[in-house]
Amino acid sequence: MTNRRELLGGLAGAIAGLAFTECGLGRHAHAQASQTGVAPQQRRREVVVSGKRVRTVDIHAHCHIPEALALMGLKENYPPLSNMPDRLKAMDAQGIDMEALSLNPIFWLKAERDQAAQVVKLQNEKLAEICAAQSDRFVGMASVALQYPDLAAEQLEDAAKRLGMRGVLIGGSVNGEDLSNEKFHPFWAKAEQLGILVFIHPQGTPEVEATGRLKGNGVLDNVIGNPLETTIALSHLIFEGTLDQYPGLKICGAHGGGYLPSYAARSDQGCVTFPARCTRQLKKKPTEYLKQLYYDSLVFTAEGLRHLIAEVGTSQIMIGTDYPFPWTTTAVDHVLNQPGLSDADRVAILGGNAERVLALKS
To answer: Per-residue pLDDT averaged across 216-234, rounded?
Structure first.
């Protein structure tokens, strides 16, 4: 089997060459500027807490691999996800040192097994190449074909062991089936065994959209549908016993975990009010499982972040931007300006938690 070093050495191909050429030119231009008097490029923002430099890590950032889209006969109809010079410029401006890059949306969930295997292999290998070319700025989050759980488990192991991926992105359901379904247990078992972060990113709620209830003004299919999908996914993982069966799982819920942390106590009270409808005995109160999950900080307001911290603790939160989708450009300042946090809390949310969860080198 080809090992990771051999693979990455042999992949000195198109994406790394094209994606990072401008970055190299930028460094050259900066050197020239000192001699010619021409203004240098934008300076990289460095985040400091208590006089110490802090490495910031964005857990929620997306990209695409054009060749993988081509395998499915698709075009890149989203923002320019593969434009690395622009990405690095945005990171430098916002004070983001590292991004955990993940592929989203998951366009291969209905693909046949062989095609899905090809798409995932190509994506994971190309993403590993990108991250290896700029290992101080990017870390990879793998793709898997979760519609085939046995294949997904194999892909996850390959991504972690051969390609050095530190996480994996999955949707909140798989073609209408909940993640707690026993058919997905091989994937959960492998994720627990590998100790790899599973980032649950919603793909919408097509069953609700089909009714037409989310049509009209306000982008409700996203604004409501995406957090709702995450809420449902995490709730099933709690109530169907998946988190009991695989207690070592590291799971991060996108967009602050959806609506679940906002109304967490109702999860406890439901089985008190309707005991006949709670037939599975859990090892803990439902709300206690929230403290073993992780969340990004994409909740927009100081009060939203305060409440999320109160429910789950600072040790479970990491900054997220959803780049290149322009949900926020102030993720770092959101934490720096949050009232009531200690310096240690700020350092943890800005990057310390992600360094621990993703097993990044200091």
So the answer is: 97
